[in-house]
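Case study 2.
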Amino acid sequence: MPDSVTSAIIRSGVVAVLRAPSADAFAAVADVLVGAGVTAIEVTLTSRGAMDALAGLRRQLPPSAVVGAGTVLTPDDAKAARDAGAAFLVSPVADRLAQMIEAAGDVPFYPGAFTPTEMLTAHRAAAPLVKLFPAGGLGPAYLKDLRGPLPDLRVMPTGGVEIADIAAWLQAGASAVGLGGPLLQDAARGGSLTELAERARRAVDAVAYARS
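Prediction:
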């Protein structure tokens, strides 16, 4: 069975990937997302002020929301994000797996992988979720074919996943999907929060449809 954080992400079905030049608007964006039903939030460390934003979101959002860190590339990144209160850690790569998992401690670490060998390696290293990245150019059929011989993989496609693709990915066997640009668009740079809420509701509806 997955841990409680991973289970919460799987229940959400969507992880909102917050990436922008600055994290200044992440508090307002996260409020809208959680209000619309997207309860898993990933703050990418490439955004200026990400660590402060991460710590702030942990205080701001309700207990039903899980807030983690993304673009975690080094053990030092993992330790800093954990100290800031990250509930989970996500990387685009599966580099130095043993060191990264050790640095994450009791915080779930989700490495990125692209090939079957990379994904199986991450799974055997006890990653509770493997981030399929970048997923958009592969499509749901890739995951369906992959999970034929590797049915125990828990996979989170991210990168190039559109809102319209959510149901197809979940029906192909994804545990959840990561959505960045297609969900946020310009909301973290002064864009419409009303339109963000509508996109988030469409994403939540897609999850419900896929699982009905």
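The chain has one domain: 4-211.
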